[in-house]
Amino acid sequence: MGWNKVAVVGVGLIKFGELFDKSADFMIQEAFLSAIGSVDKGIEPREVQAAWLGVCRPTLHGFGSVGGVTLSGNVGLAGIPCTRVENGCPTGSDTFRNACLGVASGVYDVVLALGYEKMRDNTTLGLLGLAAQGHPVLQRGETAMTMFAPQAVRHMHEFGTTKEHMAMVAVKNRRNGACDPYSHYQQEITVDDVLNSPMVCWPLNLFDCCPQTDGAAATILCRADIAERFTDKPVYVAGVGMATDVPYVHEKESFTEFVATVRAARQAYEMAGIGPRDIDVAEVHDCFSITEIINYEDLGFCEKGEGGRLIEKGETGIDGRIPVNPSGGLLTKGHPLGATGIAQMAELYWQLREEAASSGGLGDPKVNARRQVKIGRGYGLQHNVGGRGISNSVVTILTRNP
Amino acid sequence: MGWNKVAVVGVGLIKFGELFDKSADFMIQEAFLSAIGSVDKGIEPREVQAAWLGVCRPTLHGFGSVGGVTLSGNVGLAGIPCTRVENGCPTGSDTFRNACLGVASGVYDVVLALGYEKMRDNTTLGLLGLAAQGHPVLQRGETAMTMFAPQAVRHMHEFGTTKEHMAMVAVKNRRNGACDPYSHYQQEITVDDVLNSPMVCWPLNLFDCCPQTDGAAATILCRADIAERFTDKPVYVAGVGMATDVPYVHEKESFTEFVATVRAARQAYEMAGIGPRDIDVAEVHDCFSITEIINYEDLGFCEKGEGGRLIEKGETGIDGRIPVNPSGGLLTKGHPLGATGIAQMAELYWQLREEAASSGGLGDPKVNARRQVKIGRGYGLQHNVGGRGISNSVVTILTRNP
């Protein structure tokens, strides 16, 4: 059942945070070595035949242009082909998707998908720099907040969703992230903390927004039929969906759903031959608290308009019916664009293998274990949505079922 | 024989040149409509299930970041997945490669690979802007010329290659380009013209260097086994190779070959089950005249060191043993990074179908026909090399043989 042509046999990431002390090269190398070292039965780096690099806003060497050799040349793999992918917030997950297509094509047996992002030490190339230079839209405040806040307002208006519902998402994810040693934030917060945090763009307070975070993450993929060479517990790619929507906010038909997510999820479920009820655990794109609530609905975890009730009833907590963002999500772990989707794959890999306690060797196993969800049907779902006009989404379904 | 999982069933490009009057959106739409319109038996745009967009130095909307929705949302295909690829000079050909992998994976039946580049109306994000801001390397003159000129010097020293040999490449490609209605330049030149053109970086004169050119190109690809739905004359992807080298010039072992090209060519020939002697026509990366001479050797069209003699004997002319760059190549047609590789595929598509005369409907058929090569074995080879440290290469082999 499911696509299952490609297997994940290794994952690695670095502790997310404000990594002013680490170069992009260093972050790439650290994530790569972590992924290589995670392969149960071992792997030689030279067994990797091709690579895909995800990074959305590269600042490496002061250039505005970064190609694949930034990865291959940095990790001792000069020689192999390496494609650089850029695709807004789903940059990491689309990088993973293209690596999957590469393996499924039959051309490559073992490949690497790695993403990184330096979000903190921006050059003048960033959005704020462009705004300062007088960019016609940016100087008037077109930011991620002004794209997502209207969705929150409309969702509140149509479905009675409240600021408390949104705050509950932030509280849940902070609680989960406190048990994820890779998370940018490690502190729990309360609903009052969220509601009393500074207003950024009504109705989104500061703690409704994900932080600006540096990070890197990597996965080793191979043909499913050779996965046993690397591990006895592979995780398979059961389905991968990707879709777009009209790229400008003013063209959208709905402000309470992300059409790209709905389309991508439909593709992924169909490829996997399952439905939302089969998902044991999900890592979804909570760039803002309202985004996670809308995702619940778009991904089929509840009916349209019921997202607020789903978090209120605790159904998306670690012990709930459908645990969402055990890693802490973007709200807690952070959102380094090129790394985010691939780090979500790593979390699902550990969750499906019931290895959150060890989490690749970082952190206190007893603390880490608190975020391990119960695995039943054996399926995990990964999701990103974003890009210009919130018009781009990737949904990937991983499974431990052969 | 050969990989042949993927077929090209439509190609389109726009006239290359200084397109200050056309927006990136316009160029994308024009190339897309041209490719859609070229499909012999017709195709509905909605039959396209996924897309890949290649652009290396995007300036669209003043942003330094461009995702796939820039393509899908612009051509009435909002909904389908679209990956943005960036990979230095091989950006276009790697975009095509990823589209091929997508089809071969079995996930998509019909896809679009489109590349564009605005090289002329740069924002401040360009290399010169960074140099002006005091970039430590760029302000000291690290440019494409300073990476390629030393290769020319060493090739002259080791193999007796002369400035006249290089000039002959420029002369041949200008002659070919004069018969390509899409080419930036349309005038023939002489060896003396080249030798007397201004010195840019010894031994490269101005006419040894490709121009800065805007352009866009697109291809429609599908599963080989459904190609007959779209045309009775599909062109198949017989092999696609890609490789890298160490990414810094000072690390290189040789200054007379591009190791990435040698590796990529080996992969492509092996997949196609052929050798250099089977190639009827090649479109190769002549960013500088010396590059084409080195490519002859790296691609196996002659022995190492014999590149100068090959052009001198006229073997790479339209009527020669192995015609190279009938389109005029980068030296004449121009090199809009995201478009170049895909435009090369279009030229090979026409050449292998023996349709250079019509050239997609542009130009004078009698003039166009002068660049039609004789097709024997039925194979064409596409090649790009570049990126940081000339460390990235793609080689694609197309064939009309089922």
Structure report:
Two copies of one chain form a homodimer. Chain A is α/β, with parallel strands linked by helices and 402 residues long. Chain A contains 13 helices and eleven strands. Chain A has helices spanning 24-38, 69-72, 91-104, 127-132, 144-159, 163-177, 191-196, 259-272, 289-298, 307-312, 329-333, 337-352, 365-368, and strands spanning 6-13, 50-54, 82-86, 110-117, 199-201, 204-205, 215-223, 235-244, 279-283, 379-386, 392-399. A nine-stranded mixed β-sheet of chain A has the order 3-2-4-7-1-8-11-10-9. In chain A, strands 5-6 form a two-stranded antiparallel ribbon. In chain A, strand 2, helix 2 and strand 3 form a beta-alpha-beta unit. The N and C termini of chain A lie close together (8 Å). In chain A, 63% of the residues are buried. The model of chain A has no long low-confidence stretch (mean pLDDT 94). At the A-B interface, helix 2, strand 3, helix 3, strand 8 and helix 8 of A face helix 2, strand 3, helix 3, strand 8 and helix 8 of B.
Which key terms come to mind for this protein?
two-stranded antiparallel ribbon; nine-stranded mixed beta sheet; 13 helices; alpha/beta; 18% strand; globular
In short:
Two copies of one chain form a homodimer. Chain A has 402 residues and is an alpha/beta fold. Chain A contains 13 helices and eleven strands.
Runs of chain A with pLDDT <50, length 5+? none
Note the gap between the termini of chain A: 8 Å
Strand order of the largest sheet of chain A: 3-2-4-7-1-8-11-10-9
Helix content of chain A: 25-40%
Number of strands of chain A: 11
Quickly give the structural class of chain A: alpha/beta
The succession of helices and strands of chain A, N to C, reads EHEHEHEHHHHEEEEHEHHHHHEE
Tally the helices of chain A: what do you get? 13
Average pLDDT of chain A works out at: 94
Assembly state here? homodimer
Main sheet properties of chain A: 9 strands, mixed
Approximately what portion of the residues of chain A adopt beta-strand conformation?
15-25%
